[in-house]
From TrEMBL, chain A:
It is found in: Membrane. It holds the Pfam family Oxidored_q2. The lineage of its organism: Archaea, Methanobacteriati, Methanobacteriota, Stenosarchaea group, Halobacteria. It is an enzyme of class 1 (oxidoreductase). This is NADH-quinone oxidoreductase subunit NuoK. Belongs to the complex I subunit 4L family.
From TrEMBL, chain B:
The keyword Transmembrane applies. This is NADH-quinone oxidoreductase subunit L. Its main location: membrane. GO terms for cellular component: membrane. Residues 139-426 form the NADH:quinone oxidoreductase/Mrp antiporter transmembrane domain. It is found in: Membrane. InterPro entries: NADHpl_OxRdtase_5_subgr, ND/Mrp_TM, NU5C-like, Proton_antipo_N. Keywords: Membrane, Transmembrane, Transmembrane helix. Residues 77-123 form the NADH-Ubiquinone oxidoreductase (complex I) chain 5 N-terminal domain.
From TrEMBL, chain C:
Residues 132-429 form the NADH:quinone oxidoreductase/Mrp antiporter transmembrane domain. The keyword Cell cycle does not apply. The chain crosses the membrane at residues 84-107, 138-155, 167-189, 214-235, 256-276, 288-309, 316-335, 347-368, 389-413, 425-446, 474-495. It is a multi-pass membrane protein. NCBIfam families: NDH_I_M (TIGR01972). This is NuoM family protein. InterPro entries: NADH_Q_OxRdtase_chainM/4, NADH_UbQ_OxRdtase, ND/Mrp_TM. Pfam families: Proton_antipo_M. Belongs to the complex I subunit 4 family. It comes from Haloplanus ruber. It is found in: Membrane. Keywords: Membrane, Transmembrane, Transmembrane helix. It comes from the Archaea. GO terms for cellular component: membrane.
């Protein structure tokens, strides 16, 4: 059995990749992917601890998260389409009307 | 047994009813509701006479009729209304209701026949005025007295400002209310303080406050709160506080300035104000609670001094006035000064006597002046008159009767009463009170001036040749003007006979009926006899031995001298103004010693700028702080909100930073790094 | 149940009016608002409470229903009225109806919303004056602000937004201070209370159960909480120097709203001061007697001086409200039966009189379209009835005897003069009483210049008498003022009954 620390390290790595993507990329699609990465990092944690404790709750929860992620993608893609329609680009830094 | 006292509340309620009727239905009634007022005051007069007869049979009435505030439990003060009918009140009721009736009748001639508009308002005002004054007269406690005192002030405001479309009357009305309000402020403090001190404000009966005060001074264990003062000092302070209201309403120096301005009102109203209602209220109040004032020699001394000074002060101003009503106004101030002098000098009966005679002769003079004003088509300047004697004999002879009374010429009413006032001041002054002597001296000098200005007025108005077209062909007056004049003319000539002390001293015939009337009564604490004892025991008044006829002769001589001087100067076919010979003094007198000026100066140059300053302070500093706080937060917000750039990546970075910072903090605090 | 019915009916009525067409929303609102009037008068006739609701007395029409539990505290729906609450309930219902009727002639857009908000406010005000549970009370207390905000902000004058936001933010921040202060007290009481029931809290506080909280000793906690609550209510009253929102709000608000603001909303502040500060923390109040009396005197004189400087009729009345509220504070701190009772009576009297004054000024404004003293003169010539009532009301404001204002002021003066909470109380009272001269000064000056003299007003239309829908409410108010002035015991008896249990700290009864 793989110790739970390894899973945690994996999840941290995935999460950091996602975070890095969000902080550095301007492309909305990459943004969305990065968010998915971070969500999956959380899923890994859930599943890992579920296995570790022998408790099914975590795995159930990760299923929910996946459903949620799917929904999020649907919404996200919609937003990106609108972004593209309005700015002719999918650069997230262009849309900054929502400020002071 | 149903007697006069059971109907006594109706004396007050009848005129009040006429107020309501005139207010609600005056438009639809003939003569604008005048008949209602006449009927009501006549009813009051009849009931007052009945009460008078009942009181003269040795009865008195002192009952609580209405509980204004019941109070919770036994310890709480009850505030009540009630009637106190003793000889003084009975006398005053007669005066007020008689004068009010005559004024109502006269108003038919002065207002209705002259085609005034707004008559329902006028008669409503008269009704309320009469009702308030009657309520004040019968009040059995200080609070009720104060309440009706204020209502009297309201009515004076309404009636002085009757011709509200002109600019003068509203201003005069405002001044009258405001100046008397200033006095009433002290009165109200006094009322509150009396409650706090004695726990009651009743004038008479068991546990009345003058009685408690007397007991407290005698040391017989009555519970009073004197706020750390000696009882004598505190009672003097209380007396002086209440005196503030008296000085305001009775137009004593320095709060007399409203009264000459009040001449802007209709002349019958002036008659009512000066003779029987508002101005009389102040003096009546002192007489009503004389048992309290008699305990404090300081308060009495101040009353006498203010009275004496006002008598002289106002008389001098009356000398130079041009308008007939102005002369009368200053004479009123002066005469009430005499009453105050009498009260302060321990002459309770003398002052009440003067109150009685003055009511009739001053009402007469005002109504006479009103008749002259009708005749002159509302021109009041005496220099435009002259020679009216032949053209309006009834007015002339009745007016003359009033003038003789005012000047104090024997045997008219004013002589007897003014003489007695001065006599009291003299004997008690010689008995060891320099204050009273000073008051006496001023009162005596004022007698000369009174004789002079009174006859200057008579000669200028009625004697000589007519000086204008209007005076040659005056407007006629009808029975409703002449009737009241005749009644009052007879009274002014004869009412003094009720109390002829000098004649009694000379002849030994018993002639001091008013003394007898006021000296005894069922309510022994309210009698002149009792007041005499109080004056002797607490104010330490002692009488010097002076023959009353000697004092009377002195003042008569002075009055005659004044009248004689007026005769020499003005009883000529073509009189000229002699006032210029007085030089600077004339300006001083004509401008009322600049009393109005300084009071207006206080109002417009001190209070108003102060209030503007307060407003600036309020807008600038107080509101400035409020707005400042809001603009600081607005400014801070406008800066801090720049964090919100609208760029998603920045938010993500901030989130990450925040999370990291939190982790670090938790780590440091949780000791992860140790 | 009648209190619930009253509040519920008013809420339902406000919703019904909100949905009604604009054309007859005003008529409907007036008709429906008669129901609470009848209800409150019925309550008055059946009133059987004894003592003070917060100090162990039995309130009338009391109901207690457990509502929910929160953080270890039970929240109850607890309502009831005692001799302090009922007069204010009657005042609220009567004044609302009259304000609604007087609005007919002047409100001419979005009527259904206007009248709906008025009734909504009435419902919440009724809640404030009847609630005996802090949570319930606080919900109503805050909910009053909302309709008021919109009434000023939507139907107001040119600077309505400024005034509405100032009013809302100022009073809301003040509520926060009060809330913190009160909750600190509740926490400080620890286990001795298990609900936010006001009688229970008042009882515990008066019994000295207050303990320390987070290391703050009980004495300090008491003082701090008192000050926080006092400041919170002082804004609402308002007491100088927290009064500056009031003239702005009054000037911008339409007249019927001013009537409610001056007539009822200001009384929330004094009512709350009486219920919280002066009932729950009497020792602290008497400890601060001198500064509170001083601030009351300053309110009276300073407010009156400010009124003297104004040219706008509404500002004059607004500042004079500050002055009158100063009297109320003076009466409250006196801790005598006439002082506290008089203060409560003055709340009613001032509610009626200031309501009348604002309404009358509104009537004149509707005719002249100006409120500046200098712009008009001789209005008595064209509007005799309105002038007559305005003059009568102004004299009522000056404290003319046999009108309600005199009764209230005299009771306060008498009570404060006799008070033993501080040696200088007679002096404070005497100084405050000078307000009766200043009030006469500015009202008489304003009346002389606007009402009397030759008629002068530049308009391109004929100036005539006001419609009956505007003069009738004025007349009703005037009658009410005179009736209460002649027979103050209609309310004063029950007020005294409710006030007497509070007096143990103010020296002897007198």
């Amino acid at each position: 059995m793989v110790p739970v620390q390894w899973y945690l390290l994996l999840a941290t790595a995935v999460f950091c990749i996602g975070l890095f993507g969000i902080l550095t990329r301007k492309n909305a699609l990459l943004f969305l992917m990065s968010v998915e990465l971070m969500l999956n990092a959380a899923n890994i944690n859930l599943v890992a601890f579920s296995a570790y404790w022998g408790n099914i709750t975590g795995q159930t929860f990760s299923l929910f998260t996946m459903a949620l992620a799917a929904a999020e993608v649907a919404v996200g893609i919609g937003i990106i389409l609108v972004l593209y329609r309005n700015f002719d680009d999918v650069d997230v830094t262009l849309a900054k009307g929502m400020r002071w | 047994m149903v007697g006069a006292f059971d109907y006594a509340p109706a004396i007050v309620l009848l005129p009040f009813l006429s107020f309501l009727v005139a207010l609600a239905g005056g438009k639809y009634l003939p003569k604008g509701g005048a008949f209602g007022g006449i009927a009501a005051t006549a009813g009051s007069l009849v009931l007052s006479a009945w009460v008078f007869l009942t009181v003269s049979a040795g009865n008195a009435y002192n009952e609580t009729l209405y509980t204004w505030v019941a109070g919770a439990g036994e310890e709480t003060t009850r505030l009540t209304f009630g009637l106190l009918l003793d000889p003084l009140a009975a006398m005053m009721l007669l005066i007020v209701s008689l004068v009010a009736l005559l004024v109502h009748v006269f108003s038919l001639g002065y207002m209705n026949d002259e085609g005034e508009t707004g008559l329902p308002r006028y008669y409503a005002g008269l009704g309320l005025f009469t009702a308030s004054m009657l309520g004040f007269v019968v009040a059995d406690n200080l609070l009720m007295a104060f309440m009706f005192f204020e209502l009297v002030g309201l009515c004076s405001y309404l009636l002085i400002g009757f011709w509200f479309r002109d600019s003068g009357p509203p201003s005069a009305a405002k001044k009258a209310f405001l100046v008397t309000r200033f006095g009433d402020y002290f009165f109200l403090v006094g009322v509150v303080a009396v409650f706090a001190t004695f726990g009651t404000a009743k004038f008479a009966g068991e546990g009345a406050f003058p009685v408690i005060a007397e007991e407290a001074l005698a040391g017989s264990a009555a519970e009073v709160t004197t706020f750390g003062f000696a009882p004598e000092t505190w009672f003097t302070i209380l007396g002086l506080l209440i005196l503030g209201g008296v000085i305001g309403k009775s137009a004593q120096f320095p709060l007399h300035t409203w009264l000459p301005d009040a001449m802007e009102g209709p002349t019958p109203v002036s008659a009512l104000i000066h003779a029987a209602t508002m101005v009389a209220a102040g003096v009546y109040l002192v007489a009503r609670m004389y048992g309290f004032y008699a305990l404090s020699p300081t308060a009495l001394g101040i009353i006498a001094l203010v009275g004496g000074f006002t008598a002289l002060f106002a008389a001098t101003m009356g000398v130079v006035k041009r308008e007939i009503k102005q002369v009368l106004a200053y004479s009123t101030i002066s005469q009430y000064g005499y009453m105050m002098l009498g009260l302060g000098a321990g002459g309770y009966v003398a002052a009440s006597f003067h109150l009685l005679t003055h009511a009739f002769f001053k009402a007469l003079l005002f109504l006479g002046a009103g008749a002259v004003i009708i005749a002159m088509h509302h021109d009041e300047d005496m220099w435009n008159m002259g020679g009216l004697k032949e053209r309006m004999p009834v007015t002339y002879y009745t007016f003359l009767s009033g003038s003789l009374a005012l000047a104090g010429i024997v045997p008219f009413a004013g002589f007897w009463s003014k003489d007695e006032v001065l006599y009291e001041a003299l004997v008690h002054g010689l008995g060891g009170s320099p204050l009273l002597l000073a008051g006496y001296a001023m009162g005596l000098v004022a007698v000369f001036f009174t004789g002079f200005y009174t006859f200057r007025m008579v000669f200028l108005t009625f004697h000589g040749e007519p000086r204008t077209e209007v005076a040659r062909d005056p407007h006629g007056v009808r029975w409703n003007v002449k009737g009241p004049l005749v009644v009052l003319g007879i009274l002014a000539a004869t009412i003094g006979f009720v109390n002829m002390v000098p004649v009694q001293d000379l002849t030994g015939i018993h002639l001091e009926f008013l003394h007898d009337w006021l000296a005894h009564g069922e309510l022994s604490a309210l009698t002149a006899e009792h007041y005499g004892e109080l004056l002797h025991d607490y104010a330490h008044y002692t009488s010097a031995d002076v023959a009353s006829y000697v004092a009377g002769a002195v003042s008569l001589a002075l009055a005659l001298a004044g009248a004689g001087l007026a005769h020499v100067l003005y009883n000529v076919p073509e009189p000229t103004e002699h006032t210029a010979k007085l030089g600077a003094v004339k300006d001083l007198w004509y401008n009322n010693y600049y009393q109005d000026e300084y009071q207006i100066w206080i109002a417009t140059s001190v209070v108003l700028p102060l209030s503007r300053l307060a407003d600036k302070f309020d807008q600038g500093v107080v509101d400035g702080v409020v707005n400042g706080v809001s603009s600081v937060s607005l400014f801070a917000g406008s800066r801090i909100r720049r964090i919100q750039t609208g760029v998603v990546s920045n938010y993500a970075a901030l989130l990450t930073l925040g999370l990291t910072a939190l982790l670090v903090v938790f780590g440091v605090l949780g000791g992860w790094f140790v | 149940m009648i209190i619930e019915a009253l509040i519920a009916i008013t809420f339902v009525a406000s919703m019904a009016v909100l949905l009604a067409p604009n054309a007859w929303a005003g008529r409907l609102a007036a008709t429906l608002s008669l129901l609470p009037v009848v209800g409150s008068l019925y309550m008055w006739s059946r009133f059987d409470a004894t003592g003070n609701a917060l100090t162990g007395g039995t309130p009338a029409f009391e109901t207690t229903v457990q509502w929910l539990e929160l953080g270890g505290y039970t929240l109850n729906w607890h309502v009831g009225v005692d001799g302090i609450g009922l007069p204010l309930v009657v005042l609220t219902t009567v004044l609302t109806t009259l304000a609604v009727v007087s609005a007919w002639a002047s409100i001419d857009d979005r009527q259904s919303q206007f009248y709906g908000l008025m009734l909504f406010m009435e419902a919440n005000l009724l809640g404030v004056f009847t609630a005996l549970d802090f949570f319930v009370w606080f919900v109503f207390w805050e909910a009053v602000l909302l309709p008021m905000y919109f009434l000023i902000g939507v139907w107001g004058g040119p600077r309505r937004k400024y005034a509405a936001i100032k009013f809302f933010v100022y009073t809301n921040i003040a509520s926060l201070a009060m809330f913190i202060g009160f909750i600190a007290l509740v926490f400080g009481l620890g286990d001795s209370v298990s609900s936010l029931d006001m009688p229970a809290i008042a009882g515990a506080l008066r019994a000295g159960e207050l303990g320390s909280l987070y290391g703050i000793p009980a004495a300090t906690l008491r003082t701090v909480a008192f000050v926080a609550m006092f400041l919170g209510f002082a804004v609402k009253v308002p007491i100088v120097p927290f009064h500056t929102w009031l003239p702005d709000a009054h000037v911008e608000a339409p007249s019927p709203v001013s009537v409610m603001l001056a007539g009822v909303l200001l009384k929330m502040g004094t009512y709350a001061l009486l219920r919280f500060n002066f009932t729950m923390l009497p020792e602290t109040a008497t400890q601060f007697a001198a500064p509170i009396a001083l601030i009351a005197v300053i309110s009276v004189i300073y407010g009156a001086m400010l009124a003297l400087a104004q040219q706008d009729l509404k500002r004059i009345v607004a500042y004079s409200s500050v002055s009158s509220m100063g009297y109320v504070i003076l009466g409250l701190i006196a801790y005598t039966t006439y002082g506290v009772g008089g203060a409560t009576f003055q709340m009613i009297a001032h509610g009626l009189i200031s309501g009348l004054m604002f309404m009358a000024v509104g009537v004149i404004y509707n005719t002249t379209h100006t409120r500046m003293v200098g712009d008009m003169s001789g209005m008595a010539d064209r509007m005799p009835v309105t002038t007559g009532i305005l003059v009568a009301g102004a004299f009522g404001y000056m404290g003319l005897p046999l009108m309600a204002g005199f009764a209230g002021e005299f009771f306060i003066f008498k009570g404060a003069f006799e008070s033993t909470v501080h040696a200088a109380m007679p002096l404070f009272t005497a100084v405050a009483m000078f307000g009766i001269v200043v009030v006469a000064g500015y009202l008489l000056f304003a009346m002389q210049r606007t009402l009397f003299g030759a008629f002068r007003l530049e308009t391109d239309y004929e100036v005539g008498p006001a419609p009956i829908s505007e003069t009738a409410p004025l007349a009703v108010l005037l009658v009410a003022i005179i009736v209460l002035g002649v027979a103050p015991d209609l309310f004063f008896g029950m007020i005294q009954n409710a006030v007497d249990p509070l007096l143990e700290f103010g020296g002897e009864l007198s």
